[in-house]
Amino acid sequence: MPTAPALVAGASRGIGAATAEEFAAAGARVVLADRDTEALTSAVRRIDAGGGDAVAASPRTFAARSSGTKFQIPAMLGTGGGTIVNMASVMNGTANVAGKADIIGLTKVAALDHADQGIRVNVVAPGHFLTHHREAAGPGAQRLAGLSTPMRRTGRPAEVAQTVLWLCSPASSFITGAVIPVDGGQSAGSKPPQMYRQGQPMAAPPGDI
Ligand SMILES: NC(=O)c1ccc[n+]([C@@H]2O[C@H](COP(=O)([O-])OP(=O)(O)OC[C@H]3O[C@@H](n4cnc5c(N)ncnc54)[C@H](O)[C@@H]3O)[C@@H](O)[C@H]2O)c1
Question: Is residue 87 within 6 Å of ligand 1 at its C-beta?
């Protein structure tokens, strides 16, 4: 059971909401932050109604205090340590490749700077997940995302949340500066409909190639 409170940014929906719910279910006090204050209030109420202990960070406090590791690390140094998990992506779309590369770089620097001070900093890199974006994109987009994943399905936000919880627990106590893919095998490479196995015939694919 976590003993320290967990601050989850972007916690109103999607992966952030699932992460806040996972920590609350594990017994942590959760501080949720999001720029969408209406959705934030609903997310806090949902956790409290389920028996969890959640509070909303005021947008001003969040804006002032959540600038990456700049404010979090001094606070952790003052209280004996802590863990930070940042969110990148295994996808290299033009919209997010630069931002996510920055996040990975900053995570590694922070991890090295504070590795001997009780602070661990890691990154989770999700693949294709079924969140509000993909729900809005419709069943065709969801099917394509699943097909392009070696496990042939999209991920569930709880599958990222469980990895974040693990990265914040003593079970991962020797891991820092790491990029952990949670992607159904996507970062291992592409998986064709049938893999060649020596001595086994290849079936003809449906339709033309
Ligand atoms: N959904 C996926 O398939 C997927 C895949 C790869 C990586 N990711 C990464 O995972 C993270 C979560 O993704 P998601 O799709 O669940 O949700 P999302 O990225 O759409 O945003 C989640 C929440 O963050 C809030 N938010 C965004 N910018 C903010 C800011 N500056 N200040 C405060 N709140 C802010 C939004 O209001 C929203 O409620 C993101 O970093 C995303 O890049 C998601």
Answer: yes
